[in-house]
């Protein structure tokens, strides 16, 4: 059922995603692969009832993960059977949040297991010991799988193929902004190997969805209470760039930065990405998000049309308010170029703490603040 090494390994990483891990580390060592996550782990009873049983239906019945409510990716236990395709020996260590003092260890020798007439009669050695390790991101809870006696040599192309199986699991935020102070990503896959080109190939493919932009809009407001100006650059895939500074009347923001990527999801995608997967990806993660001092404000995203894009489309307006007046006469049928929420991904960065300090110094009466609900700024 699994005839490619990268598909088999991808199944193990998907298990980490289903276990509500924030981090999954994949280390390629000499004749060994170690997959480590910081998910919810397993007790011995859970290991026996779920991981050691093929054909289980709990993922189909539960449908979403326990903590983050992610759509479950695995089914029927094919991922753990796929390990046989990768290596001769498997060792699993896991610690559950229900008992962080213990480690459940299980090991399988596949050459011995496959000599059994039926899979159900194959055995695994299992024991419970005191915890003496940490998992991904130094977590005290999680799962580690060691694969030894590898059956394949992993090439740069195979790591790129591995990323093609996994890119849609990793939200795009870190690829757009990766600055000190940001929160950890909801799911982050890190590949470690001694060959830098192989790691670069994997990471490049993981970033591929955002690299397929057609238009990039970036800009900033600096010293806005005095300058009353927004500096913006619109850049097209073919290299054309159009800088424009336009006034912001009665500007209440002192400092803000933004970047918005616009995608064309009606043609073949670059980097070998499937169009249907890309559409589904941006339907889930698209829109323009707002970060306040590095923390994402949950109100904003693809669900909230706070820029009025969908509203302009549904009302069939000739010109959007988002288009600067200086450009409106130069654009032929401008609404044809206005993207919907599922075709954009962007981030606006502000700091309401900084805004309050500047407003106090300048005696500005209406600083940008945060609502009591902590999910959005004040609507001013």
Describe the structure.
The chain is of the alpha+beta class and 380 residues long. The protein has two domains: 5-205, 2-Layer Sandwich (Heat Shock Protein 90); 210-361, no CATH class. It has helices spanning 5-18, 44-51, 58-62, 78-86, 110-113, 156-166, 173-176, 196-206, 208-211, 224-227, 275-285, 309-314, 325-328, 352-361, and strands spanning 23-29, 32-37, 87-95, 102-109, 125-130, 142-150, 188-192, 215-222, 229-236, 241-247, 255-262, 287-292, 295-296, 344-350. The chain has a seven-stranded mixed beta sheet with strand order 5-4-3-6-2-1-7. Strands 10-9-8-11-14-12-13 form a seven-stranded mixed beta sheet. Strand 9 (229-236) and strand 10 form a beta hairpin. Helix 1 runs antiparallel to helix 4 and helix 1 runs parallel beside helix 6 (156-166). It is elongated and about 75 Å long. It starts with a helix and ends in a 19-residue tail after the last helix.
Helix and strand arrangement:
Blueprint lengths: L4 H14 L4 E7 L2 E6 L6 H8 L6 H5 L15 H9 E9 L6 E8 H4 L11 E6 L11 E9 L5 H11 L6 H4 L11 E5 L3 H11 L1 H4 L3 E8 L1 H4 L1 E8 L4 E7 L7 E8 L12 H11 L1 E6 L2 E2 L12 H6 L10 H4 L15 E7 L1 H10 L19
Parallel strand pairs: 1-7, 12-14
Antiparallel strand pairs: 1-2, 2-6, 3-4, 3-6, 4-5, 8-9, 8-11, 9-10, 11-14, 12-13
């Amino acid at each position: 059922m699994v005839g490619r090494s990268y598909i088999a390994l991808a199944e193990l990483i998907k298990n980490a995603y289903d276990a509500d891990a924030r981090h999954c580390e994949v280390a390629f060592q000499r004749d060994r692969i170690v997959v480590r996550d910081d998910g919810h782990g397993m007790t011995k009873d859970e290991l026996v009832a779920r991981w050691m049983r093929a054909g289980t239906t709990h993922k189909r019945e539960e449908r979403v993960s326990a903590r983050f409510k992610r759509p479950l990716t695995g089914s029927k236990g094919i991922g753990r059977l796929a390990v046989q395709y990768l290596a001769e020996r498997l060792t699993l260590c896991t610690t559950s949040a229900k008992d962080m003092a213990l480690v459940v260890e299980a090991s399988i020798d596949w050459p011995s297991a496959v000599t059994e007439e039926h899979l159900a009669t194959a055995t695994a050695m299992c024991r419970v010991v005191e915890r003496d390790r940490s998992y991904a991101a130094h977590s005290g809870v999680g799962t580690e799988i060691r694969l030894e006696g590898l059956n394949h040599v992993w090439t740069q192309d195979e790591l790129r193929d591995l990323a093609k199986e996994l890119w849609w699991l990793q939200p795009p935020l870190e690829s757009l902004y990766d600055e000190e102070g940001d929160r950890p990503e909801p799911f982050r896959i890190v590949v470690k190997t001694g060959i830098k080109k192989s790691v670069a190939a994997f990471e490049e493919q993981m970033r591929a969805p955002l690299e397929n932009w057609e238009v990039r809009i970036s800009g900033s407001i600096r010293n806005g209470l005095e300058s009353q100006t927004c500096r913006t650059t619109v850049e097209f895939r073919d290299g054309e760039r159009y800088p424009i500074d336009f006034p912001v009347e009665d500007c209440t923001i002192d400092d803000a930065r933004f970047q918005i990527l616009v995608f064309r999801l009606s043609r073949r995608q670059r980097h070998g990405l499937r169009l249907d997967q890309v559409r589904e990806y941006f339907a889930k993660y698209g829109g323009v998000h707002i970060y306040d001092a590095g923390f994402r404000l949950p109100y904003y995203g693809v669900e909230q049309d706070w820029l009025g894009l969908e509203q302009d489309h549904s009302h069939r307006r000739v010109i959007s308010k988002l288009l600067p007046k200086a450009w409106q006469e130069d654009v032929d049928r401008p609404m044809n170029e206005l993207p919907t929420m599922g075709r954009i991904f962007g981030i606006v960065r502000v700091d309401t703490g900084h805004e309050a300090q500047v407003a106090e110094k300048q005696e500005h009466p209406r600083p940008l603040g945060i609502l009591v609900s902590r999910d959005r700024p004040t609507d001013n």
